[in-house]
Amino acid sequence: MSSFEVIGGRPIKGEITPQGAKNEALQVICATLLTKETVIIDNLPDILDVKNLIHLVSDLGVETQKLSDRKYSFRAQNINLDYLKTREFKKRAAALRGSIMIMGPLLARFKKAFFPKPGGDKIGRRRLDTHFYGFEKLGASFDFDSEEFFYTVHADKLKGAYMLLDEASVTGTANIIMTAVLTPGTTTIYNAACEPYVQQLCKMLNSMGARINGIGSNLLTIEGVSELNGCEHRILSDIIEIGSFIGLAAMTGGEITIKEANTEHLGVIPLAFRRMGIEMEIRNNEIYIPPNQRYTIETFIDGSIMTISDAPWPGLTPDLLSVFLVVATQANGSVLIHQKMFESRLFFVDKLIDMGARIILCDPHRATVIGLNHETPLKGSIMTSPDIRAGVALLIAALSAKGKSIIHNIEQIDRGYEHIDKRLRTLGAEIKRI
Ligand SMILES: CC(=O)N[C@H]1[C@@H](OP(=O)(O)OP(=O)(O)OC[C@H]2O[C@@H](n3ccc(=O)[nH]c3=O)[C@H](O)[C@@H]2O)O[C@H](CO)[C@@H](O)[C@@H]1O
Ligand SMILES: C=C(OP(=O)(O)O)C(=O)O
């Protein structure tokens, strides 16, 4: 288990370019299983989850080749489905959440797929019902071995269908889309997730010859085709990393420019930071955060306390709520952070309270933060990163705090943030891996 040692209290300064998006990368790597032809993916982030998934698909038989720093080619000509029954596969699949998205392509191409319990953040119940509801609607049978925790789907024949999803699951929608593109007939998915990751997946699939309409909305219509060809795809910048950098700059009083910031794809993220009182200038494809901000959280028009809460896209992504929460600890004013989707993602506030933050955890989903208005800095502390986004929130807290902090279990952060220590050092942060 590695740790970060951080000396806080130094404003960050400079320019930074975000990595490619983790959640898009996981979708499009799985999509390479849909064709025998070569797919080239550019801007893949060099993070643990992506490395693990590339390893997994290679073990499954996909020929993978690193073409340059962030560019890989994938060729899924000879797939060995027996690998899905091995102990090695169970271990690899359990290392990340996104691995579940190999099921849709395998079902589409080979009419069967198996999967053990996927990994990912331990942030509350993470059900998979929507995935299997969709597969069943397309004609697959589904079995669950509760002793072995093993999911199986198989079909003699798949057929396009109408479906109304019970929830707009991101990986669930991606899985169903990837089955439907090779399923004869018309599939209509209503209440589909439409996060930028899903939009990007659909665009990539259309460039491979799929026929998907309604991209960017919650109503997708897919005309199945008999086969897909190869393509070249470039991953967008990671909007969660962009939000994390905005939060870090605000908390440390720093001045940064975020290059290649995907400004058209940020949805309500800039608005939510502005509601926290954080100023930013969006210029062309860059975001500039001015220095020394003493931000004041807005109230609602009627004067009531601001709530920052998550919702499926185009609502605010749940993956940034931990960052909003930590940023609020130094604001002028109060905010209610309401994490609606996940049940165990706010418990890390105990660590912020130890550092001097004023937070009341109302229940597992809601925390009220009363800002310190930059009058008293947080104090350095020793802590353990419970999940990827809480980990980054603790890192932001440590970089803004007075004195030294140690953050353990940083593998959680490495799952989704590329060489974060090295990149933050270029902005003047005092952080080292120990
Ligand atoms: C690898 C990957 O891409 N992971 C992302 C993906 O996870 P993942 O696809 O696993 O998450 P889902 O979208 O399935 O669901 C997330 C949580 O929200 C709940 N839910 C979801 C939709 C809805 O309309 N109502 C509702 O309550 C679900 O029950 C679940 O607890 O999407 C999540 C939600 O954006 C993100 O946090 C994860 O980073
Ligand atoms: C919850 C997250 O990831 P995963 O779904 O991969 O666990 C996240 O990226 O914040």
UniProtKB/TrEMBL annotation:
Question: Which residues are involved in binding phosphoenolpyruvate?
Answer: 22-23
The residues covered by the Enolpyruvate transferase domain are 8-422
> What terms describe the molecular function in GO for this protein?
UDP-N-acetylglucosamine 1-carboxyvinyltransferase activity
**To which pathway does this protein belong?**
Cell wall biogenesis; peptidoglycan biosynthesis
State the reactions this protein catalyses: phosphoenolpyruvate + UDP-N-acetyl-alpha-D-glucosamine = UDP-N-acetyl-3-O-(1-carboxyvinyl)-alpha-D-glucosamine + phosphate
One term under GO cellular component: cytoplasm
Task: Return the EC number.
Answer: 2.5.1.7
Which residues lie in coiled coils? none
| Residues annotated to bind UDP-N-acetyl-alpha-D-glucosamine | 97, 319, 341
**A Pfam family that the UniProt record links to this protein:** EPSP_synthase
* Cytoplasm found in the keyword field: yes
Which of the seven top EC classes does this enzyme belong to? transferase
Stated role: Cell wall formation. Adds enolpyruvyl to UDP-N-acetylglucosamine.
Protein family membership = Belongs to the EPSP synthase family. MurA subfamily.
Name this protein carries in UniProt: UDP-N-acetylglucosamine 1-carboxyvinyltransferase
